[in-house]
Write a structure and sequence with these properties.
Helix 4 packs parallel to helix 9. This protein has one domain. By secondary structure, the chain is mainly α. Helices cover about 80% and strands about 0% of the residues.
C-alpha cells in the first residue's frame, strides 16, 4: 500500500469552531494587511478616545507654531542681514533713521533697535544743557527696552511648544493606563480569556503611548532649535547695540 493510498483512506475530521476561527484570524494577521490605526481609534474606549483627541489637537497646534516661528526667524535673519549691510556701508545715520521712520511698515530687529536709540539720542541732543554722557545713556536705555521687546517677540509661543513637548508623553501614558484598565476589567467577567480578547485593549493602550511620542518628539526638537536661534539673534542684537553705542559716544565727543 502506498503513502498516497493511506492518506486518502484516512478519515478527515472537521476542526472545532473555536480553532477554525483562530486559524482564520492568524492567517489574516499574517497576510500583510497591517494595522488599521483608524480602527484602533474608533474602537477604543471613551477615555482613550478623549486623550487621543487631546494629543491630536496638541500636534496640530505644535505644527502651526513650528511653521510660524520658522517664518519669523527666517524673516528676522534676512532683515538683520539687510540692515547690517546698509549700516556698515558707510551710510549717514540720519538717512538711515529717516528710512526707518518713513517706510509704511513696522520696523523690527536691528533696525528697531537702531531707530529707538537714534530717536532718543536726537531728542536729547536738541535739549539745552544735556551733555553727551546723558545723551548716550538715554540712547542705551531706549535700545535696551527695544532689545527686550524684540527678544520677547522671538520667544513668543516657545513656552507653549515646550509644554506640549514635555507633557505629551505623559498624556499618552495616561491613555495607556486607561486602555489597560478597561481591558483588565473586561477580562474579569470573561471565563475563557484568550489573546484575542486582550489584544484590542493592549493595542489601543500602546497606540496612545506611540501617539504621545509622535506629538512630543517634533515639539521638543523644534523648541531646542528655536531656542538656539533666539540666543544667536539675541547676541547679534546686543552686539549691534554695543557697537552703535560706541559710534554715538564718538559722535558726541566730536560735537563737544
Amino acid at each position: 500500500m502506498t503513502l498516497t493510498t493511506i492518506l486518502t483512506a484516512a478519515p478527515v475530521e472537521a476542526l472545532p469552531p473555536e480553532t477554525a476561527v483562530a486559524a482564520v484570524e492568524t492567517a489574516a494577521a499574517t497576510s500583510g494587511e497591517g494595522i488599521s490605526y483608524l480602527q484602533l481609534l474608533l474602537h477604543a474606549s471613551l477615555p482613550v478616545q478623549v486623550i487621543m483627541l487631546l494629543l491630536a489637537l496638541g500636534s496640530v497646534l505644535s505644527w502651526v507654531i513650528i511653521f510660524r516661528k520658522y517664518r519669523v526667524f527666517s524673516r528676522a535673519n534676512d532683515e538683520a542681514d539687510d540692515f547690517e549691510s546698509r549700516f556698515w556701508s558707510g551710510a549717514d545715520l540720519t538717512q538711515l533713521y529717516r528710512a526707518a521712520t518713513d517706510r509704511n511698515r513696522v520696523v523690527a530687529g536691528l533696525e528697531a533697535i537702531f531707530e529707538a536709540g537714534f530717536r532718543e539720542y536726537a531728542r536729547l541732543r536738541q535739549k539745552k544743557g544735556v551733555d553727551g554722557r546723558t545723551q548716550l545713556e538715554g540712547a542705551q536705555r531706549a535700545m535696551r527696552a527695544t532689545f527686550a521687546r524684540e527678544v520677547d517677540r522671538l520667544e513668543h509661543n516657545l513656552e507653549l511648544l515646550a509644554n506640549i513637548g514635555s507633557t505629551a508623553p505623559y498624556v499618552g501614558l495616561v491613555g495607556t493606563v486607561f486602555g489597560i484598565m478597561v481591558t483588565m476589567h473586561g477580562l474579569a467577567s470573561d471565563q475563557q480569556a484568550s489573546i484575542a480578547a486582550v489584544a484590542p485593549g493592549i493595542s489601543e493602550a500602546l497606540f496612545a503611548t506611540a501617539m504621545g511620542l509622535f506629538v512630543a518628539i517634533p515639539a521638543v526638537w523644534a523648541y531646542n532649535r528655536f531656542a538656539t536661534r533666539v540666543e544667536r539673534l539675541s547676541v547679534r542684537y546686543e552686539s549691534f547695540a554695543e557697537e552703535f553705542s560706541s559710534i554715538l559716544q564718538r559722535q558726541s565727543h566730536v560735537e563737544e
